[in-house]
Amino acid sequence: xxxxxxxxxxxxxxxxxxxxxxxxxxxxxxxxxxxxxxxxxxxxxxxxxxxxxxxxxxxxxxxxxxxxxxxxxxxxxxxxxxxxxxxxxxxxxxxxxxxxxxxxxxxxxxxxxxxxxxxxxxxxxxxxxxxxxxxxxxxxxxxxxxxxxxxxxxxxxxxxxxxxxxxxxxxxxxxxxxxxxxxxxxxxxxxxxxxxxxxxxxxxxxxxxxxxxxxxxxxxxxxxxxxxxxxxxxxxxxxxxxxxxxxxxxxxxxxxxxxxxxxxxxxxxxxxxxxxxxxxxxxxxxxxxxxxxxxxxxxxx
Length: 301
What we know:
By secondary structure, the protein is mostly helical.
């Protein structure tokens, strides 16, 4: 089986179709048409909205699902390099072995890119909140961790990033339609797959992390509960507040836990990487790392 998927999922195909609409109709008109469809067609509310205009623009630029996969792969490589430059070689090695990271890097979805931008926002400033939310409006769940990471001095920049995102929506869609889109997205229920496989309690995320990163999770838990561990805990708590849960949504938690774990493991990082390599192999055919699929593929049930 090659790196690129042989079959793309519904959301991946939707992003590719939205990109084609932008190429054919132009940026503003295309997004406004997509926004109108989302508001007037009930079926459209089962899929990503035009609020994710930055990822849709990237889709228009790369012209295919495979191009979006390459963007995810580039984001994964950039994330590992960023980890190395910020925290050192051992954390970068442990992050580079993350099964969740490489599962995301094989998909035409923006979760890896969102994680990379979110970590930049946590570490170096809240202005990155603007592209973060333009990639995925649900990334507002990163806001508490960004506030903790930047502290009080960074609050004005976080506020500016948030306002810039709102202004971009007002310019693209018009203020009234932008508000209607935000309301529609907040109240949408998703499709049958979401209800069957992505709805559950907060314990799902703990199960996911134990299946995907048991060594890193254990090492992070026995280490000091501050720094990157605290940021991971805040980010996990905010994601637990919403009813829809999927392991790929908490890639940022996995990365931060691995940074914290590397400081505990030291040279024993190699042990975690051996487990990670085995897990990557077991999950090589997985499209979506929901809890039920992880349990099945890891032969836990």
